[in-house]
Amino acid sequence: MSREIHYCKCGQSIFGDMTDCGDCEQSVGMVIGIDPGPEHSAFVCLSDGRVFDRGIVANEELAKCDGYWSSRQVFIEMIACYGMAVGASVFETCVWIGRFTELSRLAGGKLSRVFRRDIKLHLCNSPRAKDGNVRQALIDRLGPQGTKKAPGPTYGVKSHECAALAVAVYGWDTIFGLTSKHGGPPI
After folding, report:
1. Closest CA to 128 of 186, 174, 82
2. How far is residue 182 CA from its own chain's centroid?
3. What is the CA radius of gyration of the chain?
4. Where are the alpha helices (DSSP H) in 32-126?
5. What pLDDT is attached to residue 7?
6. Which of 76, 72, 67 is CA-nearest to residue 28?
7. How far, in Å, are 30, 55, 141, 164, 187 from residue 6 at the CA level?
8. pLDDT per residue over 62-121, tens digit each?
9. Cα–Cα distance between 154 and 144 in angstroms, integer?
């Protein structure tokens, strides 16, 4: 029988029903990061500094994953306006962000919307960082992907999943009050 490990805001690792810590309601077992899209969204579940689960799935399918919305810390990338004209896909993505937010609220979960600019500032210390810079910051932080025989903590994470991982790492750091890329959660 496996016991789920939880980390409290105080950094103390505890097990099971979390009755041993004085800050139980702030405890965290897993953080979910979502990079939303108009039809498909990428998600990454980060647990103990490793990618626990990941994928790019249809939005309808992600919406049906009840376990992700209840009593979990979910962070989703939010759309921001930079003064450029946008198409219908951006508005459809906004609709899905709203639907995911409502699903989390109804299930009793905690969903936070974060902006890409904040993630770049947090991981790379620059709002002008590109996707490659964010990816390298994640590798520096969590470790290399590794190989099939010896997978690393980010093994198999690609394309939009990398953006979802950045959202999850930002969320993890937010929970534990970390402010720079040089620190790390108690993993």
Report:
1. 82
2. 18
3. 16
4. 59-63, 66-69, 88-107, 116-124
5. 53
6. 72
7. 8, 23, 21, 21, 11
8. 999 877 777 578 999 999 987 888 899 999 999 999 999 999 888 888 899 999 999 999
9. 7
Kindly compute the dihedral angle of the four CA atoms of residues 86, 91, 96, 97, in this order, to the nearest 10 degrees: 60
What single letter denotes the amino acid at residue 114?
V
pTM, full prediction? 0.80
Query: Taking the CA of residue 52 as centre, how many other CA atoms within 13 Å lie in the half-sphere pointing to its CB?
Result: 15
* Token output for 141: 């932080």
Cα angle 131, 161, 133; round to 5: 20
φ, ψ dihedrals at 155, nearest 5°: -60, 130
97-108 pLDDT per residue, tens: 999 999 988 888
Q: Which of 64, 69, 58 is nearest to 101 (CA)?
A: 69
Contact by Cβ (8 Å): 68, 32: yes
CA distance 64 to 110: 17
Cβ–Cβ under 8 Å, residues 89 and 38: yes
